[in-house]
């Protein structure tokens, strides 16, 4: 079973996305910030990470940078799912190695799941 780490500080949105992914058969681990996220990355081996950019403590860009610099986690595909959507945010995220950048208001939970499925299929062929 493929596992997904969801790093999102908005509990309602985090639970909504997590439940939708679980219904599709994925194992989901949820974190509301960097401390929980790095603990879960140590304990679990997610197949994919969904990452918000606006988080308490370290922001999503800092977390992404640390994930991509660590040999144990650098190959894990990361999808940014955020309210931020300025061109410079998207460019910075792509430079840091995300596979996709999704602006929350533009996607339904079902579309997010489809993006996850497509990303996992393409990444693990």
Series of secondary-structure elements, N-terminal to C-terminal? EHEHEHEHEH
Stated plainly, the CATH topology is called Rossmann fold
Question: How would you describe the shape?
Answer: globular
Strand count: 5
Task: Estimate nothing, just give the exact number of structural domains.
Answer: 1
End-to-end C-alpha gap = 15 Å
In the predicted model, the low-confidence regions spanning at least 5 consecutive residues are none
In terms of quaternary structure, what is this?
single chain
Percent helix range: 40-55%
Number of helices: 5
Mean of all residue-level pLDDT scores: 95
CATH architecture verdict: 3-Layer(aba) Sandwich
If strands are numbered along the chain, what order do they take across the biggest sheet? 2-1-3-4-5
Structural notes for this entry:
With 125 residues, the protein is α/β, with parallel strands linked by helices. It has one domain: 3-Layer(aba) Sandwich (Rossmann fold). The protein has five helices and five strands; from the N terminus they run βαβαβαβαβα. Helix 1 packs across helix 5. The mean pLDDT is 95.
Give a concise summary.
The chain is of the alpha/beta class and about 120 residues long. The protein has one domain (about 5-125): Rossmann fold, CATH 3.40.50.2300. It has helices at about 10-25, 35-45, 60-70, 85-95, 110-125; strands at about 5, 25-30, 50, 80, 100-105.
